[in-house]
């Protein structure tokens, strides 16, 4: 090839590049990102990595259909906050949108073949068993019993001790709620009490700390700028992958011991039977499979409720009007039942807390525990809004962004308004595809009702006894994890509330 030919090729490439980037600049001027040749939106992804939820929310809000198509090295995808698309993904064309190989591969080291990391047959058999058990009155009673004990014997005494401290010490409320949730979910899942919310506040922490690090580092694999970089780190066992391996060994070791012991002494499926015993009673699962199942349920029960309540208490600290309304509702329930402040609420009384239910739901609308969920497209498809989805593409629905879409919630979408959930004082649930906080369709969260039982029990008991003063009123930074955790915790001062209930 002569010099003249090379110059012509170079001139063509320069001309094409100028035209291409010029057209991209015009095309994406108001969309918040630019798609470059070969690397796609990678440069903008790296730039906005630490504020990815806000960045994607702005892109989706600028799109006429609240959907956009993107590419990065290694994969192509679609992100959407469109309720019609979400119904299509999670229900109408459910079989075409499984978790997919990428998602399950990234989390397989920790979750194995557990219910939240499987598709098809393995998912269906776990879902069938879990669905039957979660609808059983005995398991619900077991959950309520454990929540009551954790509140009465640990949470309230710990907060009373802190409130009575003359040094007026601060406390990380998010950490407290995570330890509460961890104790509770471990008792419900395999009837073991790690006592993370023990008297010293730090008991049984090794398993919880390892579990927390394992979930953080596993989810971090999704946010690498260059795909498969984490695989190289895992291959040579260094950095974050070395720490992940060590954390997973602790988690799996703890769970394996429990499963092995339980398999040699089965517990009957009675009022005090935990979830593990109920799965063992089926005589269908190996020890490793049982371990994967319980780890998945611990993940779901521990991180979601504590995240939701942390954001709820942060919002409540700046809304005394909402707090007053909650207190009035609780006072009326106490008066009607004749119970004292030392008594915990029963299930019927929790159901009467319509305003509190609305307030927690509104907090999760703005700060959903699982901010983004993703699927894989098996066959070429077209969304209801006309968006083409190619075979093998990643499809994500952004619950965080959905709570901030004007065409879904109105011009006041960014405001915290519990009243939007109430009609004549009675809580009215929203369409699950407009509010997919607990997922929707066949994968709808089985523990939704139990989550509300736990969250309302904690919130009611804490609010009526204590004033929670958040020290930093600025919106907390969040961690890039499987759930929306506050990066630096929720630092508060606690003072006992002196009011007549």
Walk me through this protein's architecture.
The chain is α+β, with helices and mostly antiparallel strands and 501 residues long. The protein has two domains: 1-29; 31-496, Cytochrome p450 (Orthogonal Bundle). 54% of the residues lie in helices and 9% in strands. The protein has 19 helices and eleven strands. It has helices spanning 3-27, 42-47, 52-62, 83-92, 100-111, 120-134, 137-164, 173-190, 205-220, 229-236, 239-264, 275-280, 287-316, 320-337, 347-351, 354-366, 399-402, 406-409, 448-465, and strands at residues 67-72, 75-80, 171-172, 372-376, 381-382, 388-389, 394-398, 422-423, 426-427, 466-470, 491-496. The strands form four sheets. It has a four-stranded mixed beta sheet with strand order 1-2-7-4. It has a three-stranded antiparallel beta sheet with strand order 3-11-10. Strands 5-6 form a two-stranded antiparallel ribbon. Helix 7 packs parallel to helix 19 (448-465), helix 8 (173-190) runs antiparallel to helix 13 (287-316) and helix 13 crosses helix 16 (354-366). It starts with a helix and ends in a 5-residue tail after the last strand.
